[in-house]
Amino acid sequence: MKLYISKVILGLFLLFTQFIFAQNLSKSQFTVKGNCDMCKERIESTAKKAGAKEARYSIDSQTLTLETDNNISTDDILKKVAEAGHDNEKFKASDVNYEALPGCCHYDRNLQPKTAENHDQHSKKENEFYVKGNCESCKARIEKAAKEAGADSAEWNAEKQMVTLNFNPAKTSSDKILKKIADVGHDNEKYKSSENTYKNLPSCCLYDREIPFGEANPKVHFEEGEAAKNDEHLGHSDHKASNNDHQNNDEKSIAGVTLTGAKGSTVLSKKEAGLIFNIDKKELLKAACCNLSESFETNATVDVSFSNAVTGTKQLKMLGLDQKYTSLTKELLPEIRGLASAYGLNFIPGRWIESIQLTKGGSTVTNGYESITGQINTELLKHADTPETSLNLFSDFNGRAEANFTNVAPINEHWSQTFLLHGNGTFGDTDMNDDGFLDRPKGTQLNAAYLLNYNDLDHSGLGSHFGINFIKDERTSGQIGFDKKIPQDKQIPYGVGIDISRFQVWNKTGYVFKGKPYQSLGWMNQYTYHQQDSFFGLRNYSGKQHTYYSNLIFESILGNTNHKYKAGASFMYDGYEETYLTNNFKRNEIVPGAFAEYTLTGLKYTLVAGARVDFHNLAGTQFTPRMNFKYDITPQTIVRLSAGRGFRTANVFAESQQYFASNRSIQILQNGGNIYGLKPEIAWNYGASLQQEFKLFGRKSTIVADFFRTDFQDQVLVDVDKLPQQLTFYNLEGKSFANSFQTQLDFTPFKNFDVRLAYKYYDVQADYLDGRREVPFMAKNRGFVNLAYSTNKSEKGGFWSFDTTLNWVGKQRLPNTSTNPAEFQLPMYSESYAVLNAQISRNFNKKIRAYLGGENLTSYYQKNAIVDFKNPFGNYFDGGMVYAPIMKANLYVGLDVTF
Asked: What is the pTM of this model?
């Protein structure tokens, strides 16, 4: 008994001693800059050597927690930490000590902390806590975990990265709830998730662990965070952005310290193996952006040009090659291809777009075999935490008007829906070059879509997305005075009529295996019907296309999440029926295929290697390998390599309609192929790029340089040089290649002012029947300047935005017209020219935005856009020789209202 009492007394004495000792310790927290686990170890060991009893550093929150005796100065400790190379809120490391750190430890010195005295501190409520996450799946998982830990209610906000908790302190605590949230994979301000738990989250939920708490989506041009992560289970992007967000520097508070960062509207993902640009709808607000063809006016990678002087349509080019060599998808489903090649860019309104993912070079094999120069994927509006309705009204000063209505709303916990409506009309006779032809067609378009989304991935493991879209587009062009109601042979003016009807329905369903968040199965299906009836003077062209596409994808891991793989099967059916003049062309393309892809992730590298086999009933068996590799030399220096093969079947009539507004006769030199008597197109693409971050004007800047080469193994050449009165198609005999070099610099000279500079060089040549020539209408040299400035937000949320873009286009080789009479001959090369676009917008608050802009403010236009325009039924008439704008300066106004 005495021994027992002695032990109790000794225990009480030791506890009392420990309590008294603890009273002599002070606990404090400071902001310290670091980047990785090596930084953490260095900071903590330096602090302890400087006298701290305990030192704990958090990479996520960039905070150092110190426990010190009262006679130890925290200033002395922080000074030593700075001498070890780490900036903190009291002392800055010397440049010599910072540069002496290993490359992986070079944190961003641009995002400097500011003390509370220097800013209006944002204070969160007692029941609000920072929690990392990405998407709707994260939201459901976080809220479920909180309730399982005893919370009466929980609401997670993706934009603020914050969860609001309501709970009874007698039953649970915030610590218990936050620990449970960390246990399911989500870092928060008190607990960090284990590495294995984080890696086992679905890929759409892998948030950026480098971003400090309190910054929802910090971007400084090309930032560490990914702007849009593909939901691998459903095959769609989960990126969200408010329609009235602006690209000002946003300030968020962390325990009395503010970190300042900019939200970029175009972001080059540092984590993807491929060269992928994520473009959100804030970028699209910088220009008129009436449809997808105008969505790249502020982007240096994609070239936008008019295809002819009669129909007024625009075409995209990438890596020096025509749009047809780029895979254009919507919701990761095939979109602008086949009969939609010529006018399909007009069928995706800009106000419907939530985000765009632009991939340079070979894309993943899971998305098909047609990509040669890259992929442009468009995601439609479908995410909103609360119901959001928007109305956009647009009009230019030359008779074009447009209206867009969008409504995105959650139905309940799992269901949400989107209504999209678009209508446009062009009513005025625009003839700025006085040649008697309309510079753009008159007509109307009605476009409607409905999207329905189901998300229960964290409970039943099931998610689904359904969409339906209908389009009716009617256009009339040609000479002023032409009446579409009167047959062409009954009137003198030359006319063009284009009527298109299009219907689509699609579904994407995904299932995440219970207990295996890294393993999923996704199935995508789409049916498309497209009909075009058109005439060009006395020439008629009509076509119908039925397309069914299906893609089944299984994703899992090999051992751990450093080794991921995808495998699956796809099926494509294209039924074509075309009539040109009196010739009828019918064919059915049936293409079952299988694919596999492996992703290896290391500390500094990522390798994505895949291959697919497709059994084309007309083109034969095709093998398509592709590879992307990324290596992080340092966190600021990234090298990428890519290589891959692609093949496609050429739709020679639909893809060459820019030449139909002419009196060229069409000749196909068949060589035994099964598609118009021609063989399929096959090409290899190789690429390398360097991404480098550095400081300019004391702020983070990025330069990207890339080189891509495309070598055609076989190609359907479109020869407009053989004779000015002839359009000839034939398969390549010899070599055809495209070399593309681009360098782009993004920097911020001062707050809210972003600058983007780019230069591109193209060398595109092919062996035609009469020898090797440069491909026409492709400028070797191009320059690009984009300037964007926004004022600070007012108390009511209002601000001004100013955007301007200058495109300089060097001389281009023009088709040979030397056999024409002298008055109908074109020079060998075009002039170089510059096009200036600018826009001023005013956000009055979060609900109302008005804008005024101008296109081609330099008013440069091609004076000889139509050859022999006075005699459109003569031998020399040709409206397809377009290398520059055909309209002078055009002003527009617009209004956005969000309800």
From this structure: 0.75
